[in-house]
Amino acid sequence: MEFDIKDKNLADYGKDRIEWAEADMPVLGSIKKEFSQVKPLEGIRIAACLHVTTETANLMITMKEGGAQVYLCASNPLSTQDDVAAALVYYYDIPVFAIKGEDNNTYYKHINKVLDFKPNITMDDGADLVSTLHSKRQDLISNIIAGTEETTTGVIRLKSMQDKGVLLYPIIAVNEAKTKHFFDNRYGTGQSTIDGIIRATNVLLAGRNFVVVGYGWCGRGVAMRAKGMGADVIVLEIDPLKALEARMDGFKVMKNTEAALIGDIFLSVTGNKNVIGEPILSRCKDRTIVANSGHFDAEIDLNYLKKNSKSVRKIKPMVEEYLMNDGRKIFVLAEGRLVNLGAAEGHPASVMDMSFANQALSVDYIVKLKKEGKSLEKKVYAVPEDIDKNIAKLKLDSMGIEIDKLTMEQEEYLSSWTSGT
């Protein structure tokens, strides 16, 4: 079996951590149990480009239990947990090509390696796998049935491909499922981002001006958690509706040039480029902390920092100090990459339970359509609503929560247009 990992001696520790996460992923566990009996993915090859974490490991094991051949690489150079990669190889016989801290060339070599196995389904987080297929490996497209996409940034890229008419196979946008973005983005990103910032810096958030750039579901989650820890939260937005919502939620809203003068910590969660750029970096205070929880490191204008600094030095793991030409110091966390995975362990397993249940059942849905002789158009699709609702129900069941149902009278009332005052 081919693989490329850091150290096989980490496998025992990785296995223990995978099992720890498994205990907090009951929904995916129920899917794995069913998959192991029915084998719905028999004969299917899956190329997965995801963060190599304990939660991802449980998804890969589930897909393998379903009969699939699974090949895994990292979706970010800093997001791999090397012990997990080792355990997947040595305990679960799953080929992994991922090393934490790998350079850009190795990153794309690993992506190409999983594509060498001629997958039928792609499972992506950020769309680098799909992008590589479309730009450099189009000879493999004929093997592809469909794919899935995990995150907001990837969905943005894929919808752009769809709109430009260049998307060559259908993609199910797992990120669009309510049981994904409502919970993963808000509660998962909210908690894990704060965790990463604190692990990297050990700063006290209480009393600090914490600037959140972007008030999508991830931004909402981070703002909520930062406020809960005593920070004064400032939101930067370009969307008037989201800006209004942030203000109504109790947060200050202002322009980036205003926030630059008072912010202590800046965190980007937009999926866009250089949102923490010159307007902020040229004005921010001495010893400002800058971090990103969007998928790519493009959200922070690192080129501006490099061009306008005297020196750059790593002062502790995941903290780089830029000494600016004017004498200010700006601290960048996790090289501007995902701080929640670069400096911490990513989302809690109980949140990823729902996200990866969506992944597993979306792949199952794709394969069932294929077996029925049906196919999707070359578009980006939402997760089918019945899958989304079923995952929510399974999660409630795992938590011991029961909810009410409509009575026949209530159903008739809601479907009638004649009942009035």
Which key phrases capture this entry?
421 residues; alpha/beta; Rossmann fold; 2 domains; 8-stranded mixed β-sheet; 7-stranded parallel β-sheet; 17 helices; 15 strands; 45% helix
Summarize the structure.
This protein has 2 domains: 8-180 and 348-398, Adenosylhomocysteinase-like (Rossmann fold, 3-Layer(aba) Sandwich), CATH 3.40.50; 187-342, Rossmann fold. It is built from 17 helices and 15 strands.
Task: Please characterize this protein's 3D structure.
This protein has 17 helices and 15 strands. Helix 1 crosses helix 4 and helix 8 crosses helix 9. The radius of gyration is 22 Å and the shape is globular. The protein has an eight-stranded mixed β-sheet with strand order 9-8-7-10-11-14-13-12, sandwiched between helices. The protein folds into two domains: 224 residues, Rossmann fold; 156 residues, NAD(P)-binding Rossmann-like Domain (Rossmann fold, 3-Layer(aba) Sandwich), CATH 3.40.50.720. The relative contact order is 0.13. It is α/β, with parallel strands linked by helices and 421 residues long. 45% of the residues lie in helices and 16% in strands.
